[in-house]
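Might you be able to review the protein record set out just below?
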Amino acid sequence: MEYRRFGGSGLMVPVLSFGTGTFGGTNEFFSRWGQTDVDEARRLIDLCLDHGVNFFDTADTYSQGASEEILGQALKGKRQQALISTKGTFPVGSGPNDVGSSRYHIVRAAEASLKRLGTDHIDVYFIHGFDALTPVEETLRALDDLVTSGKIGYIGASNFSGWHLMKSLATSEKHGLARYVAYQGYYSLIGRDYEWELMPLGLDQGVGLMVWSPLGWGRLTGKIRRGQPPREGRLAQGGEVGGPRVDEAYLHDVVDLLDEIAQETGKTIPQVALNWLLAKPTVANIVVGARNEAQLKQNLGAVGWSLTEDQIARLDAASRREPAYPYWHQKGFDSRNPKPTAW
């Protein structure tokens, strides 16, 4: 397993982490992802640890906290071998303070996650989404206190806009508060918006990327082919609900090329899609999920080899989309405003 520095921190993490959104499945949304129980979770976690994947990602809203509970039970006796990341901000109750990034909510959310996980510290704690109603300084001071107390090791941001993240980083610098070292965001061959602003920001500010949904909300698993609707798995059960819309013709063009390169490399379509991400700037870690051991083993096969420059260029070209303003306009001023990837 390859390890990389986790953004602006000194923490080294495997390039793959295991996402536990499939653990529990206690409500309609997450049941489409999976319904992994404690016994199966133990088997998957043991397989991860055997392959050097010691980083496990969850959130307090995944299956109403059941994901954290199952992960904590499955890691009993193995906590010192593992890194855990979880998230807070989204609603966890019906009360007016059961949501957001206020000191009130974040401190209580982190304490509740610690209890569900059965641990005394969380290695990486992400703010799951930007809360514009709470002053940025309030959020960061609460997180800084949790870091100082030893309950949290590092902090990160997820699903922020570029200005949200930059404002937070500037506030941390101004007041000497804990700083977001990583950004957890959506990035895939069929979802490259991250490259427009967040990637240049990450390079400039030393913020690493932890990728979620690297297979395009399940569309790059190889189960969707031209003229063939998915017959099994997450998408067949409606698992694309809540995900970004993707033009069908565009998707099929990308999958066709993935299939071609998979045959050239002797790998699978998901392995090629994941390996493409590992070659991109700022990417420190990719969160992979799995309903079973077979899926997990396939995802583990995405590391230990590399696509050629020509294969990466072909995938870049097939997946390229016209960016939104002002990014399309900036393409005409590359000499003074270079971008880390070609659009």
